[in-house]
Each structure stands twice: as structure tokens, then as C-alpha cells.
Specification:
The structure is a homotetramer of 227-residue chains. With 227 residues, chain A is mainly α. Helices cover 70% and strands 0% of the residues of chain A. Chain A has ten helices and no strands. The longest helix of chain A has 25 residues. The relative contact order of chain A is 0.09. The interface between C and D is large, with 61 and 62 residues. Chain B binds a DNA duplex (21 and 21 nucleotides) through helix 2 and helix 3.
Chain lengths: 227, 227, 227, 227
DNA sequence: CATGAATGAGTATTCATTCAT
DNA sequence: TATGAATGAATACTCATTCAT
């Protein structure tokens, strides 16, 4: 697509080869960094794994750090795609929320190395870089907040500040993903998504307790973070 | 004075001094490991900070690893104490839940280095050790589940499996704590606790949507993890 | 040229260069370890001497210990060759014994560092390794004992157990070599070999004393170590 | 015994205590240095063994080096005594030579640590100090050469330069002692002494070979080291 | 283009020695 | 006098990166 020219000058074939090789390296690197941890992952070993020379890796990525960050970025790109696909699979906005959550949990269940990469990035580049995860999360915030706002205006969600809803759901997913990985929880992502959604949608209080507490529909508590 | 041991002459071991020195080292080490990250934290610099010789640190802790893990453990002990205190401050069980959440968020707001230590531990000792955080979390699980069970039996919470509630709240807090730290959120812990609790207790759906979805009091959805 | 392997492009491994470099390192290391002593010999300094980076030495030898032991082994290989050459230089078996002794003493006179390496090995690897010297000595024992046995059968040597003769000559050379080095004796190796051989062959007793003591040809004293 | 004074000034008792304590330390140190090797022998461990504080050892010996060398010196003093006793046990001078050799070999058989101390001293103080062994050996040289000279004048030994005889016997013993220790030979010292003496006295040649070679009584070969 | 030989900065830990108690 | 707390010099080894072939 990039070069539609039938016969450009130079070496057109190599571009494709170069991209494919790059992908191969990133694939192997993702697993390798995740299994060893960034500091213990040495390039020589990765080169051996890939059956290429060390120098070759350096031809594709200027440094270990750069390779690692490319690895994380690629992973986050894939996560974003997966979530978007999960959203697009439903029509009803509330169902779309469920779709997003399922996609998120599925993704990390299928790619355990993804979680490890997030940790390693934060631990090893704490001062040098905003965590890629949050770069992406923020990039999608407005788009997703808009959706929530529509639901509120449609009267389907309580009138709570949209950031608050986004934060709670985002933080809950983030915490769930880490915990799943760290303690080795083996739940089916879809079951877990359902449980989680149930509480987020309905809360944990019983009907009687809700009534006893006199919930007001529009505003359960004064909104402190509107400003 | 403490021990009437028949020790001969010579410089007596002062237990109190020893303990105090140990605490001083742990205090400094917590901040130091958090600010540098485990791999970059070199003992020489820590010794300089403490104005003692490197050897002195090694008299109190046999290795860098040991010192670091002691640091994490101490922090988790303090967190547990803070949460317990937050619980004990209220009588009503639902209020106690709020107290626990507030204590948790306050603790990490006041001790930003605590979050960093958790990351560093996971990133640098991934294969050697179960994360201390989850050792403590598990140690308190049964005790806290019992409390939830009572609330359900009292009809104040929906009849949802207790693990599910514990997991959701635990994961939400965990994710919130990390996110606060990573993106530098500066919310007042108590406000954040209130927001979070509001959603956990009441859910995000509006009353009309709840009714439209025909919520059943006892069991909103078939319980998949009872067995 | 040596190997017609189908290696792809890239810098080819030059086996000859590799071997030469290895020899250079061993040469320098032998002198260096001998002059400093094993514990004081630090690799950085050796690298400086060789005008290469520390890492280069580690490319050829995996550790300081390994390098040192390779150094000792090489020296013992050379000693063995020298002795064998000394033996082959003569035809008469008794002359061959003289040739071996001369070669031994010459070797250590010409390579003072060899003695030092033997000491250093024993002192620093006492529990980890049988001294290389004795590994080689034992490897040659049977071969040399056979020669002695022939001489006895030919009636040229007294009928003394072959081990006894081998041990005495071996121990005498070992002790002479150490003593020469430790006290800085500067005798010509060939003169010393002659003196030593004279006593070993003829003993120190005068003819009259021999007769007075009634030497029996075949067996001067009851053989206690035949079994 | 040392201080016969009934009531000297100061603290007379302590001198005896001090000497006894010093001996205890030297005893333990000899075995300790021999088993660990000088560099690995750390003073703390020796203090633990002796059940005293590290500082106490430093009250008796100013440094690790000094303690070690005192240990070697004491050992050599004992060896000298043992050899002298072996000499004094016989009247006939040739028997006395046998007595000395037996005493030497017995001493090292009974004190294996003695050999190790000699190695360790040479290996670790190569540039700082003439080996104690040779200090003592030289100190006794003249005395022993005189004895040999008398035997020659009495016509009982061949007229060989006395140094040559002393060197050969001395080197042979030195080499035998080391070899015994390094290869773990378990021969009875007296048997070994007899074997060794047999060869030194009578040589290894058969009578017929001696005659064939035309041994001249007084001078088997021109004396090259008289000057 | 691909390779791997060469490089050298960087760091946890030990232990002889001192000296306050 | 005896002790042991405190100290800090000293060193092998790894591995990201470069660049000659």
C-alpha cells in the first residue's frame, strides 16, 4: 500500500522483507523480555533465539531500550484494536461496555507476557517515560467519556461525572489484570467480565439497603470532582 | 539490664540501639529504593545518605536483596495496621468497609514510595518470590470474607459469592493505587474513596435502567463460581 | 579455507587467529600469575599488559580460575615434552635417566615462573583440584617404571622395587626444583644434574664402608613394600 | 617457672597467663591457617573457634600476617628440636644421619598442617620474606656440614663436597615431604626413611655396573662446586 | 547486508583493623 | 583487659554497543 509503484527505484523487495523481519524480532522480543525481565534479557541470547547475529538486531532497532519500548507499544496497539473490536461487536451501548471489558480481559488472558511487559516498562523506565499503557488510556479517554455521557443523557446511567465512571472501570480492569497475572488466577475471562460488570452496573447493596439509604436517582452524593 | 547474662567484660551489645539503627536503615532504604529503582540503587550511595560505612549496612542486613525485601515487608505491615485501624474506627460494617478503603487510599497517598516498592519487587524478583502484597492480601482474605458473609446474611448486601465481592474491591483498590501513582493523580484520598465506594455500593445504572433490566434481588445473574 | 561450511555473509571466524591470541594470553598470564601470585593478579592489569580490553580475556577464558589452570596445564605439557626430548637424546637407558634429569632441571632453570605456578596452584586450589604436577607425574609413572624394571632385569641396577627408585628420584627432583627457586641457587642445571645423579647412582658411602656393612648385591635390605 | 620471683612488682601472674593464651592461639591458628589457607582464614572465625573476641587476638598479635608467621616459626622450631632429638638418639654418625631423616619424616607425618603452612607462607609472602624453612635450614647447615666432613675424613663417606651431600639429602627430604602430603602417601615414616637412606647410602647401581663404570673411590667425578 | 570480535563501565560484598565502652 | 561495632579498600565479571570484515 505504501509503495504502489510497480517499479520504484532502489530495492523495493527489501522493504517487505525488512518489515517482516522486524515483526519477527518484536514477536520474539516480547516473550523474551517478559520471561527474563528487562535487565536480565541480554541481546545475545535473543539473537541466538532468532538465529541471527547480534548485529542484525541492531540494524533493526538502535538500542535495547528502543527495542523494548517498540515491543510494548506494539502490544498496546494490539490491545486497543482488540478492545475496539469488542465494542464494535455490539450495538447497544451498555452491551458495548461489556464487550470492551470482555475483550480487555481476554487479551491479557491470551497474552500473559503483555502484563509482564507493562511491569517491566514501569520498573525500568520510571523516570524516562510516561508508561505506554497510560499514553494509550488517555488517548482513548475522551472518545469513551463521550459514550458514557450519551448514556447518562439517555437516562440509562446515573448522573455521575463521566471521569469518575471511567476511572473506576479503568482502575478496576487494570487492577484485575495485574492481580490475575500475579496470583495466577485461571478464571475464564468472560465469566470474570460478567462478575465484574454485574457489580459495576448494579452495586453490591441489596434492594432493601438501597432503599433504607434513600438513594436519590440523579445524585447519590454531591459530585466533588466536577470542577 | 534486659538480660542478666553472665557476659564477661567487653563492649556490651545494646539491643535497643541495634533495633533503632535497623529502623533507620529501613526508613532510608525504602525511600532510596523507591526513588532509584532496585537495580540502580547502590549500597554505597545509601550508606553515604545514612552517613555510615557500607559495611555497617551489611552488619544489619546480609545482602541488598534481603534489605530490599525487609523494606517491602515492613511497608506491608504498616499498611495492614493502617487498614485495620480504619476498620476499627467504625461500628457499622458497611461503614467499616468505607473506613478500610479510605485507610488504604490514604496510606498510599501519604507513602508514594510504597507503590514504587511494590512494582520494584515484582519486576526484580518475579521468579524468586510471591509478591509480598499478595502474601498479605491472602492472609487477610478469610477474615474479611467472613465480614462480607455476615452482611449478606443480614440482608444488607446482595447475595453474591463473597470471593467475587472481595476480588472486585481488592482489584479496584489495587488498580486505583497504581494508577494514582503512575499518572500522578492528586485527588484527596477521602474524596476518591467516596466516589469509588458510591459505585461499588450502588452501581452505575440508573433506577429506570435497573427496573428495565428486571433486577432480581437475590441473584442478579446465575452464580458461576459457587462450586 | 579450512572449513567449506555454508556460512552466510558476515565476519568469518578465524580459527588460527583465535588460537594465536589464546597462546599470547597464556604466555603473558603465566608470567603475570607467577610474579603477582594468584590472589594479587587482577585481570584488569593483565589486560593492560596485553593491551586488550578485560572483556577480550574473558572471551577466551571463562574465568580467572580457568585461565590460571590453563596456564599451569600448558606449562606441565611443555615440561613433559622437554623431559621426553631429554630421554630420546640418548640410547643407553642409564644415560636416558641422566637426560631426563638434566631436561627437568634445565626446564625449571629456564622457566622460573613454572615453579611459582606450581606453588600458587597448590596454595590457592588446595581443596578443589589435584595438583596438576602430580596428575602428569602419575600419568608417566608406569612408562618410566617399565624402563627401570628393564634395567634391573639387565642387572644394571640393584634389585630394588621400582616404585622406590621412581619415588626417590622424583621427590629429589621436586625438592631440588623448589629449593633452587626459593633460595635462588644459580647453579648450572647440567652440573647440578651430574652431582645429583652421582649420588643417586653410587650413593655416598665409601667403598670401605660399603664392604664393612656387607652389602648384598641383590637386596641391600629386606624389601618392605613389594606387596 | 619463668619468673621465680616470689613477689615481683606489677602483675606477675598475668605474664604466665599471657604466655599460655598466646600458645593456645598459636595452636589453633596453625590448624586453622592450614585448613583454610592464608587468604581464606579470617580472624573472626578463628576468634569464634577460640571462644574469644576478635580484639583479643589482636591484643596478642599485631596483625594477621604476624600471627601467621609466628605460627610458622613455632612449627619450624619444633621441627628443629625433633630432628636434633633424632640425631642425639644415636652415637654412630651414620646412624645419626638415619635418626635425623626418620625424625624429619615422622614430624611431618604427625603434623600434616606443617607442610601446608610452608606452602601458604611461600605462596602468600613470596616477596616479603625469605621462607622460614630455609632460614632454619641455613642456620643448621654449617653444623651439619661439619659432621659430614668428619665422616669423610674418617673414610666412611666418599670424598664428595660436603655441600653437595647436604643439598641432595636436604632437597630429597623437602621433596619427599611435599609429595607425601600432596598425593596423600600413607607410608610409615620409618619405612620410608629406610628406603630413602638405602639409596642415598648405596646408590641404585648394581655392583657389576659400578665396576663396569670403574668407580674411583675418592672422586667419582671432578668436583665442580668446590670454588 | 550480516556478523561477531572487541571493549570497558559499573557494583555487591568481604574482612583486617581500629577503638569506644 | 576484653569485646565487637564500625569502617572502606579492593576486584571479578557482564553485556550493550561498535565496527572491521
Amino acid at each position: 500500500m505504501e509503495s504502489v509503484s510497480k517499479r520504484g527505484p532502489g530495492r523495493p523487495v527489501n522493504v517487505a522483507i525488512r518489515l517482516r523481519r522486524q515483526e519477527e524480532i518484536l514477536d520474539a522480543a516480547a516473550k523474551f523480555f517478559a520471561s527474563r525481565g528487562y535487565p536480565e534479557a541480554n541481546i545475545q541470547e535473543l539473537a541466538d533465539l532468532l538465529q541471527v547475529g547480534k548485529g542484525t538486531i541492531y540494524r533493526y532497532f538502535p538500542s535495547k531500550e528502543n527495542l523494548f519500548l517498540a515491543t510494548v507499544d506494539r502490544m498496546m496497539r494490539k490491545l486497543t484494536e482488540a478492545i475496539d473490536a469488542g465494542i464494535d461487536a455490539a450495538d447497544d451501548p451498555v452491551e458495548q461496555l461489556g464487550g470492551a471489558i470482555r475483550a480487555y480481559l481476554r487479551f491479557f488472558a491470551e497474552h500473559p507476557e503483555a502484563t509482564e511487559l507493562l511491569i517491566q516498562e514501569r520498573a525500568n523506565f520510571k523516570d524516562r517515560k510516561q508508561p505506554t499503557y497510560f499514553v494509550y488510556r488517555e488517548a482513548n479517554t475522551l472518545r469513551r467519556q463521550a459514550r458514557v455521557r450519551e448514556l447518562i443523557q439517555a437516562g440509562r446511567l446515573r448522573d455521575i461525572p463521566v471521569e469518575r465512571i471511567g476511572d473506576v472501570i479503568g482502575d478496576l480492569l487494570y487492577g484485575t489484570m495485574f492481580t490475575n497475572y500475579f496470583v495466577g488466577r485461571e478464571r475464564l475471562p468472560d465469566d470474570q467480565a460478567a462478575d465484574l460488570l454485574d457489580i459495576v452496573l448494579y452495586g453490591v447493596l441489596s434492594e432493601s439497603e438501597r432503599r433504607a439509604r434513600g438513594v436519590k436517582e440523579q445524585d447519590v452524593r454531591p459530585n466533588s470532582d466536577h470542577g
